Amino acid sequence: MTPLRLPGIEACVFDAYGTLFDVNSAARGAQDELGPRWQPLAELWRSKQLQYTWLRGLGGHHADFWSVTSDALSFALESLKVDDPALHSRLMTLYLSLHAYPEVTDTLQRLKAGGKALAILSNGTPRMLASAVNNAGIADLLDAVLSVEEVGVFKPHPSVYRLAADRLQLAPEQICFLSSNGWDAYAAKAFGFRAVWCNRFGQAPERIPATPDGQIATLAALPEIVIA
């Protein structure tokens, strides 16, 4: 198989949650209280979090990602019959300091050394993203950290992806977009970005328009794809 190469890329734009930052690390960090329930909680919390972004977007009832994340956590805790406001507060605090995946810093450093502009484009609020970026120690490697709050609607609305192209002052085809969320990578490709799906969990392909340019298992494979 011919190795994937994407010539002409000037910038790499990353989704944040699940791509750079491990969304399960918040619940994992409360294992002392949750015990074996931490993983089902993490999975339900994430699933409902995404559902609420889509439902709010379709219904025209926007609320910021912090509020959506809190509501999703409340649903998950109640579903697992956990009634503990202090635990809810602790988990939300942990969400502000999610762990970065192991390869993130090295990958960003290699891309930066290769002359690529680097940005985050995320559903997260500016406060949430600043906290995660600072906790991971990657702020100096990023040229922009972009939140959907600038356009008032969540992904996959095209105006979110347009935000990155406008801010970086690049044509969509000059941008490589990375997401571990298949629907996000597909939607970014449909917008016009070159898109690479970081399929960390071996998920099946989506059945929505516009197939990404390729798949990788971790972000570590990205520099060889976009650096000539």
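That was protein one. Protein two is written in the same sequence-then-structure order:
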Amino acid sequence: MKVINVIGGGLAGVEAAYRTAKEGKKVRLFEMRPKKTTPAHKTDKLAELVCSNTLGGIDITTPRGLLKAEMEKLGSLVVEAAKKTAVPAGGALAVDREKFSDYITEKIESNPNIEIVREEVTEIPEEGITVVATGPLTSDKFSQFLREYLGEEELHFYDAISPIVYADTIDYSKCFWGSRYGKGGDDYLNCPMTEEEYEQFYNALMEAEKVPLKDFEKACYFEGCMPIEEMAERGKQTLLFGPLKPVGLIDPRTGKQPFAVVQLRKENREGTLLNLVGFQTKLKYPEQKRVFRLIPGLEKAEFARYGSIHRNTFINSPKLLLRTLQLKKNPKVLFAGQITGVEGYPESAATGIIAGLNASRLSDGREPVYPPETTMVGALLKYITTADPKTFQPMNANFGLLPPPERRIKGKLNRRKYLAERALRDLERWLRELS
């Protein structure tokens, strides 16, 4: 029997191995720890959680609540382990880290179809089917291999993420669509500021509380991903020559150039999500909401994703991957987890399930598959494989990724409930068709 390789013993890797083994396939799961460690991991256990111990909301009207409900229907080991090792956390699913990784490690070690190989992998095996799930702290040697294999410019080592807001929460009466000097289409939503509004925004930005950097993240401070608050510290005028530059933009309401302008661009083709251009930041999440809501038009904006800058190896998935998570240049190689450009524990694990499912199908000579885009899993796969490759940045689960309801539904909670119920219904139908 052919053996399927899974590289990486994090959340995505264990899900890929577990799903493939459950399909009756032999799996070789590579994990380099403890022979080679990372700056963040403390143990040699599989699925070790190195940051937060929460997997997000439980209710299906929250993005990660819906995602985990879908994962449960897909047979997720991570969700099973989380429920077995949960600790009280209000409306979130939080876990006892040690018991969580112990549970998953025991499940994988005791599976007769899975062989765990404690070695560092430095290149993708030429023979057979391989799932790459090496995560945000991919080793230097394997990173170098990927740079050469995929193309140096297609591999990124740091997230420099700007916040994303839901388009339907913006006050458009204070903004205008347009492009600098009238070049191209009206591709940017411009939020103009007076000098007084800029002064208030600048002062709030300077006073805001930041997330402290971890030691292994400090190398990310280069000009290409400079946090907006770091730019602001260089002087009050710096932002006016950077992301808030008003030159070439005329406010149609006044016929004049504003003192400052914050620009937003569409994050997805449907335009349900808008990205604050150049606003990568290390501000704490509540501070981002407080400060960025001082921008005209964003006073009541709801955030689909907050900004961040941190170490995270990821590939340019829209250019490199099919929606089945197969590599375009070599369909026998699949990618899963944060290396594909998804953000968060459940998101990473969910892609591992799909990669494992498709590795098994490829082994049998069957066509690989992906869930409907009306599901949160399917919507994430669509985003990471169809976003603009020139501006691609990692994404977490959010309702802005889902196609809107087929009819008008009043109230955010009612709308989310409808989208969640539709997603679960469509996923069940898809699973019946697969069986």
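The chain has a mean pLDDT of 91. Keep this in mind for the problem set.
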